[in-house]
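Lab manual, section 2.4: Encoding a predicted structure.

Procedure: take the sequence of the chain (589 residues), apply the prediction step described in section 2.3, and record the output as structure tokens. A sample record is shown.
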Amino acid sequence: MSRNGQPGGNLARLWRRHGAAASWAVPLLLYAILAAVLLPMHWERINPDAVAYIRRALLLTRGDWANSVSGYWSPLISWCIAPLMLAGMDGLHAAHLVLALWGGAYVICFHRLLRVLNVTDDRWVLAATTIVALAAIPAMLRPVAPDVIMAACLLAFLACGGHQRLLHSTPLQVLTGVLGGITYLAKAYAFPVVVLLLPLTIAMHVYSAGLRSRANWLAAARAMLVSGAALAVVAGTWIGVLSHRYGRLTISTSGPINHAYIGPNPNPKSPLPYGVEPDPYIALIENPDRVPVATWSPLASRENFAHQMRVVWINLKTLLGLVGGFAAMYLAVPVLAATPLGLLALRADRRGQAVLAWLLCASAIYGLGLTAVCWIHRDPRYFVPVALPLTVAVAVLLLAAWRNSARAPAAVRLLVAVLAVAFAGPAMAGVLKAFGSSQPTIYRDVAQAMRTAGHSGPVVTTHRQKGLYAAYFLDEKVVKFPPVRHPEEAEEILRQHGIQALLMWRDRQGRLTYGQGAVVADDEPEGNSDGDNEAQGALEAANRQPARPQVAERMTQRPGWTRILTLDAGRHGQVEVYAPPWRSEGIGR
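Recorded output:
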């Protein structure tokens, strides 16, 4: 490449002309290509949350708006799924497509946040946005859950709130409040986060503009009033709907439930009667707030306070590990630990100092709240989609600060390259892992086979989650196998509740599998993720009671039970479907 510039000079001119557009178009194109390739490979990925959200979207398509309202399941993801289902798309596929589209919005919102924070080097913006685009792929593929949606909305809220003209632009103030409200609709946990971040954001602008100016304080008061009013209109509307449904002021029911399950006594306060869910629901997962959980307060006793501190401490260690995992060799941790040096380097730039501190506070507010209400190590998706882009943004701001103040620019360039590779490594590993996974179709297959066999009516399952998935595709009610000692007793219970089929799940070795608490109790929520959930404490407590796998198997050996089909899913095991003696006329023919 000549110094006078034929090849190199042309490339430089091309970058100067199109670098700004490339900084968002290239990562978005990369994300779109990967999503288009990987999405069909993960169409059948299902988790308990997916059933709840898609079923609520299904109720919307049927015009049953009232029963689609839930204080536990946030509405935005179901509202996005419902139009695709109305257009004829399969519910599970629609859910995955919605998450893929929101993943693209997540990438764009992060790019916009960097621009608002005055990161002007297009190469740095391109590298950072590409890292987030790669990280978005596994985040949107794994569970059907609103975490990526909420993260995209929160990044949009921060990008809008971080704009330099916020104090003097009414449209920006309104948009900031509206985005805060939409973030709450995406996931209820975001409500206290947004409520705390809004005044903090305005305070950041006041500090940047000058604390001694009376005009700045008046502008801040007006911005707080306008943004707060917009937030109240959007969030308050949904809070009003929930309050009407539950007969009391209700922001969400998920917080108390999840907090109950990390308590010193995570068992439900009292068991629910065994039986199928009332119409229009098919499983308890759709209404976890029906479970009478034993709520608790860390201030009620010294023991409770000690337990809460233990939960927080364990979660803090988990957060540190997750942040470290954002970059190879745990380099994200020393980068964040060097923030005081960055603030010192920005001592002549009030805006730069305020923005860096603001991002750190946003990360802390979001993460520390989680430490008190759930076991983060059992579901990192609550933390990672928000914390990772904020960590990358902080790293970019620190590097920019050091570049502007350093006397050794070559060393800064080397550090930029090292950190770019370090952050890109784990993100790329997540993408490659997604290429190596496949999802079974056995749940859809068994539903289709039962439908072909003429099945109708509720089913009972020996495996909590697998039976839930099959019942979802079958569109029939499902209960777990009753926690009894004798097959005769189990048979009578199932007869009383009109159960029309038994689903028995086996592993590759032919052993019966049961999942979390599947044959022990019927009094906890079904769970929230692909195997791990907030209800784990309750499930572990319930499972102290020894499981009796022989009960279901012995029951099928009693007179009148008929095995109507067996499906093999290879490494995912197999399922046997039995019709009871009182089966509906026509089943199994």
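Check your result against the sample. The chain is about 60% helix and 5% strand.
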